[in-house]
Specification:
Blueprint (H helix, E strand, L loop, with lengths): L8 H28 L4 H37 L28 E2 L3 H6 L11 E4 L10 E2 L9 E10 L6 E12 L7 E10 L9 E8 L7 E7 L11 E4 L1 E5 L4 E8 L6 E8 L24 H9 L13 E5 L3 E4 L4 E9 L8 E9 L2 E11 L1
């Protein structure tokens, strides 16, 4: 009886109806045989009474057979038990709501996600970098994204994390694209890779992947974007990272130019803001303090202090520094409209090491893009 799906109620009802029909057909056959024998009225009434009793008995027998069959199905689908036990284990199949199972959280350093949570950002993405193609010894020389040659093949690398401790992302597509240097420029696809992202803390986490990219023939600055795609992502807002920098030697003042485009279909109010948030450097992991039981002691204050250090208002421009925007720091652009922005950075004193100046464009109060400018003497 392996073809019978015991756990499906529909098959049980089919068995019950078939047994009842067999009983009815048998009782009807006996009645017709008695009627054809030509007996008297009393015999006919007896046959009818016997028919009713047989029909009722047949129904009872069918119900009993159904109960026995259902019990057999339950025992057949139950897990192995000790000898003599008849514990009812319940249904062998359980429906889990979509909100119960665990979902992975693929993530990359995402400026849009961090700004939405009021954190300062850098457009010199720590999870995206470029190198030359491997040399004969396998080494790959790092390349600054603002010094790219036209019509030249580079290797674009990306580092991807999983915020989930329980759910991996197997076969996840990673999209690489580039933009002309600026804000809100339309991306062009470079290539797609597929990675197997393990859970946080497992061997092989984080995952690194890459594509080879031949830069356009036209000289200029280009920005790299890396997007992660997972249909059932626990937090899809942290899946897009951008590498977008420019470097100028200080010429008192330093002048940077870049285009800004409204990539939305309608008019939007833009506002340009500047800060001096540096590219984040992973801190050293000190030996954690331990409580009386020897377990690591939690220090909520230390965690809060680390978050506060990355807030937007914690990184103003240094004293004496200023950034002026031309044609203006606030303006309105129609859908698809593009303008050229000139940022003039004035500093106080000398700058021996490159210092970042992040320019963020907010469209109706929401981050639309940005660039990181490095100035040095």
């Amino acid at each position: 009886m392996s073809w019978i799906k015991c756990n499906d109620p529909r098959w049980r009802w089919v068995f019950l109806i078939a047994a009842t029909l067999v009983a009815v057909v048998l009782a009807l056959f006996l009645y017709l045989r008695g009627w054809q024998s030509g007996g008297g009225i009393v015999d006919a009434l007896a046959v009818i009474l016997l028919f009713c009793l047989a029909l009722a008995g047949a129904i009872v027998l069918a119900l009993l057979a159904y109960a026995a069959f259902r019990r057999w199905c339950d025992l057949r689908g139950a897990p192995p038990k000790g000898a003599g036990t008849r514990e009812k284990s319940g249904p062998s199949s359980v429906h889990l709501p979509s909100t119960i199972y665990k979902r992975p959280d693929p993530m990359i350093y995402s400026q849009y996600y961090l700004m939405a949570h009021d954190f300062a950002v850098t457009w010199d993405n720590p999870d995206i970098w470029l190198t030359e193609l491997p040399a004969s010894g396998g080494t790959m020389a790092l390349v600054a994204s603002q010094n790219l040659l036209p019509d030249h093949v580079y290797r674009v690398h990306a580092r991807i994390y999983n915020g989930s401790l329980e759910a991996p992302a197997v076969g996840m597509p990673v999209f690489f694209s580039f933009l002309t240097f600026g804000i809100g420029i339309v991306p062009t696809l470079i290539g797609v890779t597929v990675v197997n992202l393990p859970v946080k803390g497992a061997a092989g986490h984080p995952v690194e992947t890459f594509v080879d990219w031949r830069t356009p023939v036209a000289a200029g600055h280009y920005c790299i974007q890396v997007g992660l795609f997972w249909l059932d992502d626990a937090e899809p807002a942290n899946n897009l990272g951008q590498e977008n920098v420019d470097v100028k030697k200080l010429a008192s003042p330093a002048v940077f130019g870049f285009p800004l485009r409204n990539d939305a279909p309608g008019r939007r109010q833009f506002r340009l803001e500047a800060d001096a948030y540096p590219p984040p450097v992973p801190p050293a992991c000190p030996e954690p303090a331990r409580d009386a039981t020897g377990r690591p002691a939690r220090d909520p204050a230390a965690g809060t202090a680390r978050l506060v250090a990355h807030r937007r208002d914690a990184h103003p421009l240094p004293p004496g520094w200023s950034v002026a925007f031309s044609p203006a720091a606030e303006f309105v652009l129609a859908g698809g409209e593009q303008i050229d922005i000139v940022a003039t950075v004035t500093v106080l004193g000398t700058v021996p090491e490159p210092q970042p100046v992040n320019v963020n464009a907010l469209a109706d109060g929401v981050l639309a893009g940005g660039v990181t400018l490095f100035v040095h003497s």
